């Protein structure tokens, strides 16, 4: 978000590269080590600039809301969750409540059907390869935001560049390599027993390079029964087969064990907002996930005007999850989920056309069962689970530069997939087997008008489409072999983005999007009358999702010593409603507030020192479909300071300095007067510190 600083960096890189090359050519032969070091540094900068240039071009050719997040911006503050990483991305409502770093993510009103559990509605990728399961579910998906170099957040149908047409969009995490990042040690600690450490080391040897990051996190929590232990290994190795072909192998292992404090009633929250739910401690509710992932990606520069990318990924996730225990019902989920994915992308520049052809295919299998339990110890098998899903996306897009300042963007996605649930009741032998094929053609058309060198206007009309997940079919309110309908809709969007000078040595940048979507058959959760604290999935005939997303930033020069003031403000206004529903009329959809504002104002000195306040302003929201439960909004004040130098950085961050008690997240109910809403508290006053060393 510090656009001026990045511009300066890019300029300095452009100046340094020829200087470095001259130094290499002019140095005596006896200084081989120095020459080798310079060559490696030059290669690293060229590679980094190429990656960023590609992302910036992709950004500029998307006629809708897209935000690029850089790891450089995350090093100055505490980042333990995706919510921290996405803090300033407009349109993204994130909340961390029950779990240690499990983050509820909603983009443009997605995922309101399964709060803090399944995490559908957004496609997650790492280096263009899928992390999201083939059915669209992100359950068990743990992504370390500090293990990424960039994150591209494409909201809504703007994610069709990645083959997605979901309501929420997609996030593509770009990992670093030994050619783009230094060796690094990162140490951080803070309130609630938080300790987070990582070590990154790599090497480049001719056409080969390799990088490994080992991370560990421990957390006591700010609530009872909230301890967490997480460790992970992230590795990749590359082979520059030729000047035009590069192959890269990725390996990931994550082991995450965490206790679940659960949601609270309003009375429990008023008594002690940081207590665990009284049922969760004797029930020993847990969320333990172990996963490993292997992926491979090959990129060919077929010519100066065409590129081909082919990749695959395989992921295995094991889940042990005691989650319900009461006198009438107990549930422990113990299953193994495997997901295979592959992608093919072909880019071709043909005259005034930039063509993109793509294919994504995924298969997911979930095997295991639902068990009875006592105190978190697995008991008898109650339901045998063997669920399957596959999904094929074929998409084509053209960026036609038909006039000097105009670009027409048009294309379509064809999607076909199968969902098959096999749940066998052990006691009766009865099998529920809802199975359905889902198919759709999703067109998209947009236009971009270049206002100036670094600013543009855009507009688009796109079709949205999202098939139900396996979890949603398992919990179908119909409780038979009938299936849910897919969510479909049409969205229109207009906006602008860019940067412009402000005075002699200052500038500002902006992103603004306004969208309106009419949705049919949105899948939402309703109360299960036969199992307290659980929900069932159903289609809602018509809903509306509309909003305004704005990100404003600036860098103002103060005079000598390269002193600057850099404010950032992210603003989101939401209007998510039922549309003439027979029960709820035009009520507001719950969970997401009508508006929220997040920002900071940072002072920077030329010696690397920085400091300034942060703030959050969150409006009221509803906790139930009937709009009888009003969740009060809140205001948070924080601050951060530190020193950033070329090869080291240190920061100190305070959050919620006024120690405000507030609700971070809710578990939705139909009607508060019939089934009270459960709530989760937000983080109390907290302080974190961290240090980074490059070597």
TrEMBL record:
The keyword Nuclease does not apply. Residues 239-657 form the TonB-dependent receptor-like beta-barrel domain. Belongs to the TonB-dependent receptor family. It is found in: Cell outer membrane. InterPro entries: Beta-barrel_TonB, Beta-barrel_TonB_sf, Plug_dom, Plug_dom_sf, TonB-dep_rcpt-like, TonB_rcpt_CS. Keywords: Cell outer membrane, Ion transport, Iron, Iron transport, Membrane, Receptor, Signal, TonB box, Transmembrane, Transmembrane beta strand, Transport. One of its GO terms (cellular component) is cell outer membrane. It is a multi-pass membrane protein. PANTHER family: FERRICHROME IRON RECEPTOR-RELATED (PTHR32552), FERRICHROME OUTER MEMBRANE TRANSPORTER_PHAGE RECEPTOR (PTHR32552:SF68). Residues 62-170 form the TonB-dependent receptor plug domain. This is TonB-dependent receptor. It comes from Alcanivorax profundi. Pfam families: Plug (PF07715), TonB_dep_Rec_b-barrel (PF00593). Residues 1-23 form the signal peptide. A motif (TonB C-terminal box) lies at residues 678-695. GO terms for molecular function: siderophore uptake transmembrane transporter activity. It comes from the Bacteria. Its main location: membrane.
């Amino acid at each position: 978000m510090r656009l001026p600083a990045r511009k300066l960096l890019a300029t300095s890189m452009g100046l340094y590269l020829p200087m470095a090359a001259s130094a290499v050519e002019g140095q005596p032969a006896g200084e081989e080590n120095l020459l080798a070091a310079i060559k490696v540094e030059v290669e690293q900068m060229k590679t980094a600039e190429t990656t960023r240039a590609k992302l910036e071009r992709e950004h500029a050719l998307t006629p809708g809301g897209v935000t690029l997040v850089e790891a450089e911006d995350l090093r100055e503050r505490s980042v333990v969750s995706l919510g921290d990483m996405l803090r300033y991305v407009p349109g993204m409502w994130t909340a961390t409540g029950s779990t240690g770093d499990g983050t509820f993510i909603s983009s443009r009103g997605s995922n309101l059907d399964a709060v803090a559990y399944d995490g559908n509605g957004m496609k997650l990728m790492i280096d263009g390869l899928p992390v999201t399961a083939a059915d669209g579910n992100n359950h068990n998906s743990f992504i370390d935001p500090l293990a990424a170099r960039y994150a591209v957040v494409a909201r809504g149908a703007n994610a069709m560049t990645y083959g997605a047409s979901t309501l929420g969009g997609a996030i593509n995490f770009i990992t670093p390599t030994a050619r783009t990042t230094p060796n690094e040690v990162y140490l951080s600690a803070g309130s609630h027993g938080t300790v987070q450490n990582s070590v990154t080391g790599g090497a480049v040897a001719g056409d080969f390079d390799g990088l490994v990051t080992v991370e560990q996190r421990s957390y006591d929590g700010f609530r009872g029964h909230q301890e967490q232990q997480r460790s992970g290994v992230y590795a990749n190795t590359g082979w520059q087969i030729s000047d035009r072909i590069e192959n890269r192998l990725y390996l990931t292992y994550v082991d995450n064990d965490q206790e679940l404090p659960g949601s609270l009633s309003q009375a429990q929250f008023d008594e002690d907002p940081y207590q665990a739910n009284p049922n969760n401690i004797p029930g020993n509710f847990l969320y333990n996930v172990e996963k490993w992932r292997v992926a491979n990606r090959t990129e060919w520069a077929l010519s100066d005007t065409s590129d081909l990318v082919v990749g695959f990924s395989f992921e295995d996730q094991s889940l042990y999850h005691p989650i319900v225990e009461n006198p009438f019902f107990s549930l422990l989920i113990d299953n193994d989920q495997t997901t295979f994915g592959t992608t093919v992308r072909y880019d071709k520049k043909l005259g005034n056309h930039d063509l993109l052809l793509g294919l994504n295919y995924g298969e997911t299998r979930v095997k295991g069962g639902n068990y009875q339990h006592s105190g978190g110890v697995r008991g008898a098998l109650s339901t045998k689970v063997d669920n399957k899903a596959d999904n094929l996306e074929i998409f084509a897009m053209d960026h036609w530069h038909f006039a000097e300042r105009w670009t027409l963007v048009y294309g379509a996605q064809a999607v076909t997939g199968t969902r098959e649930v096999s749940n066998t009741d052990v006691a009766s032998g009865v099998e529920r087997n809802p199975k359905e094929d889902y198919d759709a053609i999703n067109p998209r058309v947009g236009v971009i008008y270049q206002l100036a060198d670094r600013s543009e206007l855009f507009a688009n009309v796109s079709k949205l489409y999202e098939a139900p997940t396996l979890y949603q079919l398992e919990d179908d309110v119909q409780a038979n072999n009938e299936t849910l309908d897919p969510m479909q809709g049409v969205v229109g969007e207009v906006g602008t983005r860019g940067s412009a000078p402000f005075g002699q040595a200052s500038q500002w940048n902006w992103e603004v999007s306004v969208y309106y979507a009419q949705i049919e058959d949105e899948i939402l959760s309703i109360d299960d009358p036969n199992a307290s604290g659980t929900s069932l999935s159903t289609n809602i005939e018509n809903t509306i999702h509309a909003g305004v997303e704005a990100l404003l930033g600036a860098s103002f020069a103060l005079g000598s010593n390269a002193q600057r003031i850099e404010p950032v403000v992210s603003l989101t206004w939401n209007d998510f409603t039922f549309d003439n529903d027979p029960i709820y009329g035009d009520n507001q959809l719950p969970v997401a507030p009508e508006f929220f504002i997040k920002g900071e104002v940072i002072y920077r000195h030329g010696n690397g020192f920085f400091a300034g306040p942060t703030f959050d302003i969150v409006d009221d929201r509803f906790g139930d479909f009937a709009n009888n439960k009003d969740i009060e909004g809140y205001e948070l004040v924080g601050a951060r300071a530190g020193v950033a130098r070329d090869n080291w950085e240190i920061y100190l961050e305070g959050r919620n300095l006024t120690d405000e008690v507030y609700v971070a997240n809710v578990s939705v109910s139909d009607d508060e007067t019939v089934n009270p809403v459960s709530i989760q508290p937000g983080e109390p006053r907290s302080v974190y510190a961290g240090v980074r060393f490059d070597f």
